Amino acid sequence: MTQNQTSWIDLRSDTVTRPSTAMRMAMHEAEVGDDVYGDDPTVNHLQAYAADMFGFEAALFAPSGTQTNLLALLAHCGRGDEYIVGQEAHTYKYEGGGAAVLGSIQPQPLNNQADGSISLADIEAAIKPRDFHFARSRLLALENTIGGRVLSTSYTQAATSLAHQKGLATHLDGARICNAMIKLGVTPAQAVQGFDSVSVCLSKGLGAPVGSVLCGDKTLISEALRWRKMLGGGMRQAGSLAAAGLYALQHNVARLAQDHEHAERLANGLRQIAALQVQTPQTNIVYVDMPATACADLADYLKQHGILARVTPHMRMVTHLDISAADIDKVIAVFTTFFATR
Ligand SMILES: *Cc1c(COP(=O)(O)O)cnc(C)c1O
Questions:
Q1: What span, in angstroms and rounded, lies between the C-alpha atoms of 141 and 123?
Q2: SS3 10
Q3: Which contiguous run of DSSP H or E holds residue 194?
Q4: Residues 158-199: pLDDT tens digits?
Q5: Is the bond leading into 341 cis (omega within 30 degrees of zero)?
Q6: Distance from the CA of 340 to the center of ligand 1, in angstroms?
């Protein structure tokens, strides 16, 4: 098998999802125009739909979640400003230092607690006095879900209120906010309450091939639009891509509950294997600890059995819309046989 074939059970990430036939039809039929001129009706529809869904005035479509996060950081912060962020956060750790490189924005990373939150005391202590010795504390950036963990609404409300009281703005990296919202059983607007901007990935569990949206007020989004142009993210007949995103928001949100069930099923199955330590998943991400000595052989064995995964001593497996319950059962069976024969 080649890596392109859909018959692989691919647990590496929920970014590996492929557009369904219905989504491809929506892309095929999309009305398009030049979005740099604001002329693409499908992009405009997606942006209006996302803004309305999450309770914001405006939204902006961009090629990736890294870009929507960067647009938000650049729109909120100027040169010599800083953003307070978790050590484990994508906007700090996994975006190539873009805020510093491209925005002269200083990150102030703080430890994430075991539940993924940053303690309010740590946030408060990190906010710097207005004094010329210090960078200007300007923004609190949180992430939900973070490593598959869900931040509670009471926490995000407390953290965003604290930030606002201290004169900071708030940004949510909501790459997987729909997973959080489904888990919490709240509306999209409730899930992002307290945030001045939110970035939402369309290309993860929601199944679109490309794209993220940034939601915020009109002023912020017009600032982000300017940065998007500067970063080369202005796309022309982007409606074909936006149609996939729109389809994703309209059809693939409620079904995330299934991915969460599959993650739980996977964790319960793997927990029967003595050599493994399995964390109870909250959403679609399962973490499994195993002896380092097993990793190389396990990776080969999984591959021989049509399963793609990144095997490490602290292994992450991600469920998504191209993984069925039968796939999960196969994965459990393959793991079980592997560890039984060692
Ligand atoms: C995937 C992801 C992003 C954005 O990733 P892109 O690949 O640039 O779309 C941002 N934040 C988090 C938490 C993510 O998981």
A1: 11
A2: strand
A3: none
A4: 999 999 999 999 999 999 999 999 999 999 999 999 999 999
A5: no
A6: 36
For the Cβ of 201 lying below 6 angstroms from any atom of ligand 1, the answer is: yes
4: Cβ contacts below 8 Å, ≥ 6 apart: none
State the Cα–Cα distance between residues 143 and 128, nearest whole angstrom: 22
Could you tell me the two tokens for 189?
């607007």
The residue written with tokens 């990430």 in the block is: 13
- 131 pLDDT higher than 60: yes
Quote the pLDDT of residue 5. Answer: 54
Band of residue 1 on the pLDDT scale cut at 50, 70, 90 = very low
* pLDDT value at residue 342: 83
The answer to whether residues 248 and 279 touch, using CB atoms and an 8 Å cutoff, is no
What is the DSSP secondary structure assignment for residue 186, as one 8-state letter? Answer: -
Query: pLDDT tens digits for 195-225?
Result: 999 999 999 999 999 999 999 999 999 999 9
User: d(Cα 83, Cα 145) in Å, to the nearest integer?
Assistant: 19
Q: What is the mean pLDDT of the chain?
A: 97
Q: Among candidates 69, 107, 109, which has minimal Cα distance to 86?
A: 109
How far, rounded to the nearest angstrom, does the alpha carbon of residue 245 sit from its chain's CA centroid? 14
Average pLDDT over residues 293-307: 97
Nearest CA to ligand 1 atom 6: 65
- Tell me if 90 CB under 6 Å of ligand 1: yes
The percent of residues in the chain predicted with pLDDT above 90, rounded, is 97
Instruction: Name all domains of the chain by residue range, CATH numbers in brackets.
Output: 5-15+255-340 (3.90.1150.10), 31-251 (3.40.640.10)
Answer yes or no: is the C-beta of 175 below 6 A from any ligand 1 atom: yes
Pocket flag, ligand 1, residue 64 (CB < 6 Å): yes
